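Deliverable D5.2: sample structural annotation.
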Amino acid sequence: MRNEILKRQDPEINEILKKASVSILGCGGLGSNIAMILARCGLGEIYIYDYDKVELSNLNRQNYDQKDLGKSKVFQIKKKIEETVPCNKIFAEEVLITKDNLAEISGKTDIFIEAFDKKEMKSMVFEYFLGKDDKKLIMASGLSGLGDLSDIKVKKIKNISMVGDFKSSPEQGLYAPYIGIVANLEALLALKIIIGERNGK
């Protein structure tokens, strides 16, 4: 089934992705979409972390529907992935990420995608991973409003890659198209890191 689902992709890259794993920190507008995107690409293992439940206000941009309301975000997105592309291993943990459990979480994979809403959570993860050369962190900064494609940039600081417009704020509103672009770019960066590492780049 996996080969048939992924037949429009490069078979050599499919094999690389099959052996790869990524952790997604947060499962809202970014994380719920990133998880499905990476699963559709054939990533072997995906670890997802969040402590939140699905609310009505999530439905305008997050990968959930009305049947998910009141339920755990991580377990619902795990279920959706398994129903859509059942050829990945999805590990869902309903947990609030803190300084105390980051060390344990960071031992699961080498590539992490930050998908938080709150600045303090973003800062905590940035400070934890900065300079850890054996780990790669992908972050988002500035994804509110309707934006402009020309404003979206990718910046790199040591082992951390950041994507976004670096200036918009939640007061401008959260819209599916702009958030979706950033989510796809974060997922794309993860794939490029995986393929680059396997090819010795």
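Annotation notes: The mean pLDDT is 95. The beta strands are 21-25, 45-50, 89-94, 111-114, 136-140, 153-157, 160-164.
The annotation will be released with the project's public dataset once the embargo ends.
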